[in-house]
Amino acid sequence: MARTTSRSTSPPNPQPPRNRTPQALPGRRRTFGDFVKAFLAFVALAVLLVGVPAALVVLVGWPLPGGAPSLSWLQQEITVGTFINVLTVVVWFAWAQFTACVLVEMKAALSGVGIPGRVPGAGGSQLLARQLVAALLLVGATAASFAPGLSQFGQSLEGNQKPASAASAQQAPGLFGQEGRQAAAAADALAAQADRAAAHAGSGEEGDTKYYRIQPPEGRHHDSLWEIAERHLGDGRRYKEIYRLNKDREQPDGSKLSEASLIRPGWIMEMPGDAHGGELVEMPDEAPEVSKDVKEQISDYAETGDHRQGGGEQGGGGSVDRDTAHIALPEQRPAAPAAPEAPAATAGDAADGSGFGLPEALIGAPLLAAGLLGALGRRRRQALWQSAMGAVTGRGGMQLPTPTGDAADVHDALLVGADPEGVRLLGLALRGLAASLAEESRPLPTVYAAWLSNGDLHLQLATPAGRPPAPWQPGQDETFWVIARADAERYEDVDSAAPYPGLVSLGTLDDSRLLLNLESVPGIVSLSGGAADRAAVFASVAAELATNGWSDRMTITLVGFGEDLTPLAPNRLRHLEDVDALLETMEAETRQRRGALGAAGHDSVLTGRTGPAQHTRWAPHLVLLAEQPTGDDAVKLAELASDAGRLGIGYLVGTDSGELPGAAWEMEITPEGKLLAPLLGLELTAQTLPEAQRRAVVRLFTDADPEDEGGPGPDDGPAGAAPPFLVDVTEQGRPAVYARLVGAYEIIGLDTPDGERSPLMHEALALLLLHREGVHPRVLASALWPRGVTEDVRDALVDRLREWLGTDPDGSPRLRADQNGRLTLATSVVSDLDVLRSLYHEATQGRGAGNRAVRGRMLTDALVLVRGPLLADRPRGRYAWLTHEIIDAQLPLLVADIGLALSEFHLEKGRAEKAIEALNAALGSAPRDERLWNELLRATHALDDSARLQRVAADLLARSGARGLPPRTEALLDELLPAWREGLSAAG
């Protein structure tokens, strides 16, 4: 396969690279099979070099004529003997060419340095000679140096001993080309040098420059800088040190090292000073046994080392080479001191059964948690609205089921872990970037990955794309663009298509979170590991792609798994049973996308995401295939994926073996939760969604779906389910502490706390009042301190809050913990929202259901409680947790239900003005509720005043704006005021 690099100028349709996970090198001890191969190679060489010419001499003799040629020869008949003589000449030429190949290969193998020259026209003959010579030398005296080759040469150790600071990734070398050859070295001399080098390395002496020679492939195995670093430096991630020491230095065959993943047998590599191992040798200045040619080649290579670059600190995050397609950890920029991390569950919490332990996988997935919470909130609001619109007389403030058990724990974990600001930063910055580039008529660059680090967003580009538009800034090198959170705030909400909807979180490295752009990978991303571990990664990827806030339209196809995940986003997620269905679907879509790109004149989907057609085309299609395809299916999938990056199609495929055709990037998930990609230079703490938590997440969504069999719906009765907490609304039910939340926040029955903690304690009480089922302490802490807080600060606040609320007459505290450790309020602590719900429930399902006078009084009292929106005067910058709540949707619907019920109560007695008054009062809190407007039209029509009805219709039409009136309202106006359209036109 052809490779793509960051400096590539090839057409935009390259074949994907082929990355291989480093494998352990075979042992150097020779086996019986090696001796058999060597013997057979010797026999083959003897037959070809000696046997063939001997047979020709004995059986055919001299094939050429004995005298000078004459014209009469052309007139002679061609006999069998003539034909045999011609063939004999051809065989002699072939033998001579093969003999030359053997000599060339033997010279290169015995010299130990350099790539063998090409014999003109040899082709397969030279390849055969190479294999036979290699097999023969495998057990010869030169075998000790033949396998590892010569280590690389260098000059001084200073400045070169430090390992490279960034973990970077290169697209791995493809399958071996014809260039690979069986290298060899002068065995005795180099073995002695290797022993001395090992001794120096073991003693820690500095100043002895070591070098290594790239070893040849053996079978399917090939050498790599990662493996060299793993063997001789103790850590494969230090391969960047070797790369930096040798980058762009001319090798014995005249080529240069420009990509860490493209190395050839016979190349010399300088090694860091602390390299160790028997395969290494020092600069052979004092090695007379080494041939003059070898010493000259090494000396020539040594003179090219003056330009080499120094490395950074091992394991740190720094810049990386710019010549490779890689994933690198961004440099950390100075940042303001961060708040302490959110409190984690302690061993004591788990031991005492307090319930402080929550699913850590979701707490550690802030973008996934924020996406799931946002999608869940939208689903719940949709359920509330659908249920309200489906009921004739309202739903009575329909209550969604309160999560219990595992679902409650998962919901709490989502609340603790969610980072909605991070999601907002991503969406704002990426859409703003797309808009800025469109204004400059510049295409979107291909982005391999994004890093969220220290509040900054780093984009890692596949190739340099010039200077980024402001407020973006250049990063650590030409392939990084970075924007700080404060600079991203300069963008306003722009009407731009999401440029990189395929970004998805994979995990964390140090303090940075990696998002891989699945649709940009030039081929398949494979994931190996245990089935359960892979499933957890796949579920996390699917859930985040389905619910993230930095994407628009997209299709996510789940193959062979994840059918239960479709409720998360039915418009995005689809499920296919097997690979056959996938191939049929993707073959058709690939053809369609190629044709559409060509017809539109675009090179890739990225150019199609800017300009006038950005909202209608080029939505990504991301395929998640949990089990590895086999045979022809794997080949077909690889062919489809070869052009996927250009077409906006991404493939993430699971594999048991780690070997998958067409895999551009290979990753592995370990049982310990580490996501490894050695040739990408990554070792992440993986983001996962384990099976139990996945089921609980899906349950949250299905419970909120009114169309689901178990979800709430309009057939639950006209008044809906009872609220989770009912208040005694009689005179005897006066609470000890009463908080007004609907409108301005006010507390009756408690003294205002002194000092700066008063706003914090008021906010904590409001959160508890809105969750009568209880609030997990970690949820409380994350709500009050979104940037994190220590456990002692959290616990101190809970103690102050308990002291402030006091105790009931029986001595029990008004703030207590239930058996699961969740904080709950006593029934003596009540809010007006509790009273509002209780009054409506009592009026429609309690005493008021059979007593008209009681119903009217309770509905009137309930409507009087509505003084404005929830917590109308809350301080700016606080109560951010309300964005995760649905009370902002529940309260208007509840007020609308009360207004509708009271209007019906008055209309039954013909009191249209009273009904209109109740409806207008409810419209103050629910101005967009279609039911209220329709009932207002009916009540106004009952007055038999067409002019007033016309004014109400005009007001309603003005409020509807460009959206126009809903179909039901138009139909009602046609019934009540047939000429309303003409009247409104005349008024206009």
TrEMBL record:
<feature type="transmembrane region" description="Helical">
    <location>
        <begin position="127"/>
        <end position="147"/>
    </location>
</feature>
<dbReference type="InterPro" id="IPR036779">
    <property type="entry name" value="LysM_dom_sf"/>
</dbReference>
<dbReference type="InterPro" id="IPR011990">
    <property type="entry name" value="TPR-like_helical_dom_sf"/>
</dbReference>
<keyword id="KW-1133">Transmembrane helix</keyword>
<feature type="domain" description="Bacterial transcriptional activator">
    <location>
        <begin position="831"/>
        <end position="977"/>
    </location>
</feature>
<keyword id="KW-0472">Membrane</keyword>
<protein>
    <recommendedName>
        <fullName>Bacterial transcriptional activator domain-containing protein</fullName>
    </recommendedName>
</protein>
<keyword id="KW-0902">Two-component regulatory system</keyword>
<feature type="compositionally biased region" description="Low complexity">
    <location>
        <begin position="1"/>
        <end position="10"/>
    </location>
</feature>
<feature type="transmembrane region" description="Helical">
    <location>
        <begin position="82"/>
        <end position="106"/>
    </location>
</feature>
<dbReference type="InterPro" id="IPR052196">
    <property type="entry name" value="Bact_Kbp"/>
</dbReference>
<feature type="region of interest" description="Disordered">
    <location>
        <begin position="1"/>
        <end position="26"/>
    </location>
</feature>
<feature type="transmembrane region" description="Helical">
    <location>
        <begin position="38"/>
        <end position="62"/>
    </location>
</feature>
<keyword id="KW-0812">Transmembrane</keyword>
<dbReference type="InterPro" id="IPR018392">
    <property type="entry name" value="LysM"/>
</dbReference>
<dbReference type="Pfam" id="PF03704">
    <property type="entry name" value="BTAD"/>
</dbReference>
<feature type="region of interest" description="Disordered">
    <location>
        <begin position="303"/>
        <end position="323"/>
    </location>
</feature>
<dbReference type="InterPro" id="IPR005158">
    <property type="entry name" value="BTAD"/>
</dbReference>
<feature type="region of interest" description="Disordered">
    <location>
        <begin position="197"/>
        <end position="218"/>
    </location>
</feature>
